Amino acid sequence: MPRLQNPKCWVVCVFACFGLAACADFGARYPITSQVPPGQGMIRFADSSLANARQVRVSHLGAMEHVEYARFETDDAILEAVYDVALNVSLVLEYDYWMSRMTDTWNANRSQAKSWGPVQSVAAWHGKIAYQPYRLTSSGRDCAAFSSDWDYQPRDSRGRPSRVFFGYLCAKPGRQLTDQGVASLLGSVSFPTSPVEALVPVNGQRSTDRTALAAAKGAAGSSTGNAKFPFNFGTTYFDGGDNSRSP
Length: 247
Fold this sequence. Notes:
Blueprint: H1 7-29, E1 32-35, E2 44-45, E3 54-61, E4 65-73, E5 77-86, E6 91-93, H2 99-104, E7 114-116, E8 120-123, E9 128-136, E10 141-152, E11 161-171, H3 179-187, E12 189-190, E13 207-208, H4 210-217, E14 234-238, E15 241-242
Parallel strand pairs: 1-13
Antiparallel strand pairs: 1-3, 2-12, 3-4, 4-5, 5-11, 6-14, 7-9, 8-9, 9-10, 10-11, 14-15
């Protein structure tokens, strides 16, 4: 039997192989992008105005966060929203979108002039949701943008959240939104499904459903979707400092 000439080299090689295997396994597990059947996602609305809405849902599971895109459309209105959850207590979300900036990330609102109303808020399942009515001046459509962030990590020196929910709601042409209707709808939202219950493939089966990803991002010139999806807000933090990255 041939004798091993350099034991140190053998040890290094063994650890290198294990390291490569671990990296390969980790890389194979994320990201996972998939379609979610209507009614089975993390974003739930109890308001009757969306009871018969046509739904499109897309789940994106990364190494740091679980993001869901959801679109609800009726004959009267369309609502698009994103819910993003950091996957453990050592992670936060670098979410710094003020209302108008967030609104303009959506394909339906990008590059459109708007007239804004005052910021308001409504209590929901998890806490307060801020919302702000606006009108698309070119079409006269009534809309409202909304945003909420919560579950702040107390040890993060910048006080960033681990959960965010944001999006917009627009009436169809010729229809109207009322403040009461917007407040009722947003106040009925809940997020009862844990990220660990996501509808995703088994670990090790890296998967990106391109059709699902395109539905969430929207095609060029599309009036639905958000080209920034899945945003990649997730980042680690350290006490008294951080290594954050902008979205």
